[in-house]
Every structure is written in structure tokens, then in C-alpha cells.
């Protein structure tokens, strides 16, 4: 049985303008420039540059004559009489799934594997063995290691290509690859990689000879930095042993990384979104709008709409379509300009709140002056939503008188000291880093000792928390920080 009834629902919907503001708010300065350029290309109503206003009556009179001329040169008839070819005639939609689409690859130079194959061409090998060697090269990763098991490669060759080979033959061909540059390429593990490199230096040097012995006979102890055990077993004095360890530390654990691959993209350039300057003991914040043009709506199109709006009765269908097209572009331009202004306003409000919250830090640039701060703190100050503050801080940078920083850098959690004072976890990490930098490398500080040092400084932190902060700072455990 059908039944009609009334229901009330509370829905939250975003208008197209709000969605546009949200998307623009997430963009950093460099991407905002590209977005504005794209909008200028797509919307003829939108113009860049300062908007010229006419204030004098005489100037307005002269400008009226000029506008009459403009109207004669550019009217809605241009849209109606323009013999535009429909878009469907300019694009082919009759592609078949079986059609072959070839893409031209970008050539940026010689890759790491091409370098190895070029060295293979200098060796005199039978065609079958050369093909097998090239197959092995294809299994070497970007670090220069052959991490695949050779028995698995033998099976792959048999099943996929029908080539019968043996473990011994592939090992023999791998020795050929291991003779290529860079030294250490084609190794199956770290020990073999380091041995290949140390062998190239020649064993006539006593330090190199001792280093080769350590890597060959005492590699496990070396990785765990049990230097005392190794020194006793090899029977070397302190000076000779230290020189041998120095020779090992000069080796490259990833030989493939030494090859400069031109195909790898360079790090992106950071353009700050904010510029903070210190003047006479005060801080002055500004937006970096150096390459962001000032936008305004074209006066020609605005007057065109006004003229034709007063003469609706005598308009043909083509004229109405042209007026509708221009009106849509006009509204789109106004929305875009308003969205840009709202973005700039939101950025300034949020960044000013961050500066006021961390004013002591921004005045001195001392990392220990950073207060604990989360997104909710800035949201409460500005009255904005937490998601808005998150979008503001995402991929944004500020240029200060002591460096360029990501906005996310200023947000951190807090801990309380014995006196009840709340401090930033960044301050604790700074103390940890200083303790590790100043420790005795022969007897590095363990996590328990670091926790005890922090406790003496009134920071009550458990050992597991110290370990977490140490890992965040990319500091290895005490055993791996040990030096001679």
C-alpha cells in the first residue's frame, strides 16, 4: 500500500563556492599560481592586473565614447556569428580496444642497468652466456644487489624462456658482473658487497688486509659493533685496528646509489607562503603574493550584460544563449575572486594566531621556546574548524629571519614536568639530541641512562618513550652508536 508522509531531515551540503574555497585553501603558493593561470585561460571574463577606476566626470565622458567603439568592435554577435566547429567534430571517439597506443618515452640519459649492459658489451662471451648475463643484470636492483635466489632464477629461465642452465654457470656469470663498476655491484648480501669493494683496494696495504680479515671472518661481530671481541681475536693494537675499521667505514653499502640517475626527479623547490620579518622588536607577517596576480572582472563583459539585459524583449534565441554563456562566465569569475580573497584572509588569520601562540619562539628562534600546540588550540583562537586549520598547515611554509619552516613543524604534543609546567615534546627531543651528540662514543648512553638524565632535568619519561623519541630522531640504539 502506497502512503505519503512528510519527513524532516537535517543535511549538511556544501555549495560550489564553498568547495572551491576548500580546494584553494589546500594549495601552496606554487600550485595556486598554476591554478590562477588555468582559470585565466579558461575564463575570458577574468582579467589580471590592477582595476582602473574612473573618478572624474570628464574622464567618464571620454571613456563613454571609447566604450561605444569597443561595443562596435566586440558584441554578442561575435558569439552568434562565429563559425565555431562543434567539439564533437574535432575529437575522434571511434577507437577500438584492439588499437595500439604507443607512447614516446622520455629520454633523460643512461640508467644504472644500461651502464651495466654497456660494460657487458666489452666482454668476450658466447651469445648464450651473454644473454644469461644480461638476464642476471635485469634482476639486479637499484642498490646494486642481486637479492633473488640463483636457484629461483634457474627455474624462471627454464619455465619462462625454455633455457636450460645450472646454478654453477649462473654463479660463474655473476662473477663477471661483480667485476663491473661500480665496485660491489652484483653482490648477494652486504658482506659480499663490502668484500668485493675491499678486494679492489689491494691486500698489500696492512690496513686493507686487516679490514678484509675482519669482514671475512668476523662480520657478525662487526655488524653488532663488538669491537673488543674482534680486536682480541685478530690480535691487533688499537691504532691498527682503528685504521682497519676506518677503511671499512669508507665503503659504500649501496653501490648502485653512487650512480647518478638523470631519470630521478630533483627535489621540489620550496616557495614560502608566508614571510615573517622582525622590525624594531616587533613581528610583521605578510603573504608571499609575488607571483599571484591581482584579479578583476572584465569591464567590457560586465557592460555587455547590462546593455543586453535592458533589451530582453527583442532578443533572439541565439542572443539569449550568448547572454547566458557570458553570465555564467561572469558568475564563475566573481566566485573565483571571492574564493581567492577568502583564502588569503583565512591564511592570515590562522598564521597570526600561530605567531601569537608561539610569539616567544618567533622572536628568538630558539627551538626550546616552542610551546605544546595542537590544531584545536588554533581552531579555538580563530573560531575556525579544526579541518580548516589542518588544510592551512598542510604543505605550507613560512620564511622567518632564522630559516624556512613547514607550518606542521610548530605543532607538537606536550608533557608536564615535576613542577607542573607543560613543555613541548620538541624540547625533550632537543635535549635527547644534545645528550647523544655529547656522549662518549666508546660508551654510548643507553635508553635507561637517557631516561635517568631527563629525570634529573625534571622530565618524567619512561624508557619506552625515550626509545620512541630516539627513533623519531633517527638515532640508532647505543650499541650501534659505539665508536673506537
From TrEMBL:
The keyword tRNA-binding does not apply. GO terms for molecular function: DNA binding; DNA-binding transcription activator activity; nucleotidyltransferase activity; sigma factor activity. Signal peptide: none annotated. Residues 109-301 form the RNA polymerase sigma factor 54 core-binding domain. Keywords: DNA-binding, DNA-directed RNA polymerase, Nucleotidyltransferase, Sigma factor, Transcription, Transcription regulation, Transferase. One of its GO terms (cellular component) is DNA-directed RNA polymerase complex. This is RNA polymerase sigma-54 factor. GO terms for biological process: DNA-templated transcription initiation. Residues 64-74 have a biased composition (Basic and acidic residues). Belongs to the sigma-54 factor family. Residues 40-78 are annotated as: Disordered. InterPro entries: RNA_pol_sigma_54, RNA_pol_sigma_54_core-bd, RNA_pol_sigma_54_DNA-bd, RpoN_core-bd_sf. The lineage of its organism: Bacteria, Pseudomonadati, Bacteroidota, Bacteroidia, Marinilabiliales. Residues 325-482 form the RNA polymerase sigma factor 54 DNA-binding domain.
Amino acid at each position: 500500500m502506497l502512503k505519503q508522509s512528510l519527513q524532516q531531515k537535517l543535511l549538511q551540503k556544501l555549495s560550489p563556492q564553498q568547495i572551491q574555497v576548500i580546494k584553494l585553501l589546500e594549495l601552496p603558493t606554487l600550485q595556486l599560481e598554476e591554478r590562477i593561470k588555468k582559470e585565466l585561460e579558461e575564463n575570458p571574463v577574468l582579467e589580471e592586473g590592477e582595476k582602473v577606476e574612473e573618478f572624474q566626470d570628464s574622464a567618464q565622458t571620454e571613456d563613454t565614447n571609447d566604450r561605444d567603439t569597443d561595443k562596435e568592435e566586440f558584441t554578442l554577435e561575435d558569439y552568434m556569428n562565429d563559425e565555431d566547429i562543434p567539439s564533437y567534430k574535432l575529437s575522434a571517439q571511434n577507437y577500438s580496444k584492439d588499437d595500439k597506443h604507443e607512447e614516446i618515452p622520455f629520454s633523460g640519459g643512461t640508467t644504472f642497468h644500461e651502464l651495466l649492459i654497456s660494460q657487458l658489451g666489452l666482454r668476450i662471451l658466447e651469445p648464450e652466456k651473454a644473454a644469461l648475463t644480461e638476464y642476471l643484470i635485469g634482476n639486479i636492483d637499484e642498490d646494486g644487489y642481486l637479492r633473488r635466489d640463483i636457484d629461483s632464477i634457474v627455474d624462471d629461465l627454464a619455465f619462462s624462456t625454455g633455457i636450460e642452465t645450472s646454478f654453477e654457470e649462473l654463479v660463474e656469470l655473476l662473477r663477471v658482473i661483480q667485476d663491473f663498476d661500480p665496485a660491489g655491484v652484483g653482490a648477494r648480501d652486504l658482506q659480499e658487497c663490502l668484500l668485493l669493494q675491499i678486494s679492489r683496494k689491494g691486500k698489500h696495504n696492512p690496513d686493507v688486509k686487516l679490514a678484509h680479515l675482519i669482514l671475512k671472518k668476523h662480520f657478525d661481530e662487526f655488524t653488532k659493533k663488538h669491537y673488543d671481541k674482534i680486536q682480541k681475536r685478530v690480535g691487533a693494537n688499537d691504532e691498527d685496528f682503528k685504521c682497519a675499521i676506518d677503511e671499512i667505514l669508507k665503503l659504500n653499502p649501496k653501490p648502485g646509489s653512487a650512480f647518478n640517475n638523470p631519470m630521478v626527479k630533483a627535489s621540489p623547490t620550496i616557495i614560502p607562503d608566508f614571510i615573517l620579518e622582525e622590525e624594531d622588536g616587533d613581528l610583521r607577517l605578510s603573504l608571499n603574493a609575488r607571483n599571484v596576480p591581482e584579479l578583476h572582472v572584465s569591464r567590457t563583459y560586465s557592460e555587455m550584460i547590462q546593455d543586453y539585459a535592458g533589451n530582453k524583449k527583442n532578443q533572439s534565441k541565439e542572443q539569449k544563449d550568448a547572454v547566458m554563456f557570458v553570465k555564467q562566465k561572469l558568475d564563475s569569475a566573481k566566485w573565483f575572486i571571492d574564493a581567492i580573497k577568502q583564502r588569503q584572509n583565512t591564511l592570515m588569520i590562522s598564521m597570526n594566531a600561530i605567531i601569537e601562540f608561539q610569539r616567544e619562539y618567533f622572536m628568538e628562534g630558539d627551538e626550546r621556546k616552542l610551546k605544546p600546540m595542537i590544531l584545536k588550540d588554533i581552531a579555538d583562537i580563530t573560531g575556525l574548524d579544526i579541518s580548516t586549520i589542518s588544510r592551512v598547515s598542510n604543505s605550507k611554509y613560512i620564511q622567518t629571519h632564522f630559516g624556512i619552516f613547514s607550518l606542521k613543524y610548530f605543532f607538537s604534543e606536550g608533557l608536564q614536568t615535576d613542577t607542573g609546567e607543560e613543555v613541548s615534546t620538541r624540547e625533550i627531543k632537543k635535549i635527547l639530541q644534545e645528550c647523544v651528540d655529547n656522549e662518549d662514543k666508546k660508551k654510548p648512553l643507553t635508553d635507561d641512562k637517557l631516561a635517568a638524565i631527563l629525570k634529573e632535568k625534571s622530565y618524567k619519561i619512561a624508557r619506552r618513550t625515550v626509545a620512541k623519541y630516539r627513533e623519531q630522531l633517527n638515532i640508532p640504539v647505543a650499541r650501534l652508536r659505539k665508536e673506537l
